[in-house]
Write a structure and sequence with these properties.
Elements: E1 2-8, H1 15-28, E2 34-37, E3 49-52, H2 59-64, H3 72-85, H4 87-95, E4 102-106, H5 112-115, H6 119-129, E5 132-141, H7 148-165, E6 169-174, H8 181-191, H9 209-225, E7 230-232, H10 238-253
Parallel strand pairs: 1-4, 1-5, 2-3, 2-4, 5-6, 6-7
This protein binds guanosine-5'-triphosphate and magnesium ion.
Magnesium ion binds next to helix 1.
Length: about 270
Amino acid sequence: MKYAQIVIGPAGCGKSTYCSTIQKHGEAANRTIEVVNLDPAAEYFDYSASGDIRDLISVDDVMEDEDLKLGPNGGLVFCMQYMVENQEWLNDLVNCPGEDDYIVFDCPGQIELYTHLTVMKDFVRLLQQWKFQVCIVYVMDSHFVVDIPSYIAGMLTTLSVMMNLDVPHVSILSKIDLLSASSRNKVEQFLDPSERGLSELIDPNPWMEKHTKLMKKIAKIVDDYGFVHFMPLNITDETSITEALTFIDIRCLQFGEDEDVKTIDPPDPVDDE
Ligand SMILES: Nc1nc2c(ncn2[C@@H]2O[C@H](COP(=O)(O)OP(=O)(O)OP(=O)(O)O)[C@@H](O)[C@H]2O)c(=O)[nH]1
Ligand SMILES: [Mg+2]
């Protein structure tokens, strides 16, 4: 079996940093984790890439094409589509890296690629056809989830990606090391709410009664179904990196487990109400 983490998330959230952190962590543990750059507009990353979409096509190539007349965003989508249509090149790319078949794909930061366009779905299906066990690692900057409404909004974005891509999934909260102590406490509270759940953390707002009610309902659904699993990642703390990688390996990829056991546990059943 082969394993693939597809690392996605908004621009600047820390995807490339996550990839290099995981690769270095693997090296220290004597484990080979290949990283492939799939961002055709990438300018800087500090991992050692065993493959790079820019060897096939780059956004600059596309934007210079006088027939296509595409800007940076359209150009990027074009590059991704071009890549999945070039299956032979892609197959060589995923077969090329070293002996171990554990690949982390560093993807672009354009959210539409994951929420409603089909190109990443096509990419996932190709990897599955090539016998990869695939999971999505959705990176989210923890600074954007330090209050309850944004935390819930973050969950909903993650949920829409989950529904579009339809493979095991974890959300990594990045840049935890940069949070103030009070913001870190808040995030910890959201991640591990009391038994009464996330919905109880929402303060009533008399000026936005309807809005508060809606948020409580959404939070209740999130509580009940446990749809989205957020995992904090502090890249300065080896224990935190180990915890994140272990969660992904075991819960999302079944890496290192018996070949027979390949299913993810369904969420706990809830009553219809
Ligand atoms: N301290 C700290 N800095 C981080 C962390 N994650 C990312 N950064 C910094 O945030 C900036 C953006 O990080 P990248 O890893 O390039 O983000 P990205 O998601 O790959 O960005 P795009 O590819 O442009 O979408 C860089 O300056 C990183 O050094 C983190 O967990 N801790
Ligand atoms: Mg990047």
